[in-house]
Specification:
The protein is mainly beta and 139 residues long. The chain is built from 1 helix and 10 strands; from the N terminus they run βββαβββββββ.
């Protein structure tokens, strides 16, 4: 079983089937919807997804044919840009996944729209825990 939830835990999904690989999207809409440098999404079969706390989901029509869903309480993205008239699949937010998932990133899209401040993120120092110098950060 593949499971995911929002930050506050009000909305959860469970997938009793499989999932696709993860696609990272750098377009400005996905960056804003995900609240980060990019959105990370995957596809599942709609009829294999069960929602708990769906009453806490709200949706936003991000373009004429696409709609995204978020938790009303904490704002976590729960879906990617799905068709307003749904098909048999659903795009879910990889950021909501719980546990150790076997899926991996299979593609990055809209790299031309990548945030300028994220261009060299791979070169920044990496830490296994929190950034140790938060107190030194000043504008």
């Amino acid at each position: 079983m593949i499971e995911g939830r929002c930050l506050c835990g009000a909305v959860r999904f469970a997938i009793r089937g499989g999932m696709s690989g993860i696609v990272i999207c750098h377009c400005s809409m996905c960056r804003k919807a995900a609240g980060g440098a990019a959105g990370a999404f995957f596809v599942a079969r709609r009829d294999e997804v069960t929602w708990t706390g769906a009453e806490y989901l709200t949706s936003y029509k991000s373009s004429p044919e696409l709609v995204r869903a978020f938790c009303l309480r904490c704002g976590s993205a729960m879906t990617g840009a799905n068709l307003v008239e749904p098909d048999e699949t659903i795009i879910l937010a990889a950021s909501a996944l719980d546990g150790d998932i076997a899926a991996r990133i299979v593609a990055q899209e809209h790299l031309v729209a990548r945030a300028s401040w994220d261009a060299d993120s791979e070169k920044a120092p990496h830490f296994d825990g929190a950034f140790p110098d938060w107190e030194t950060l000043r504008p």
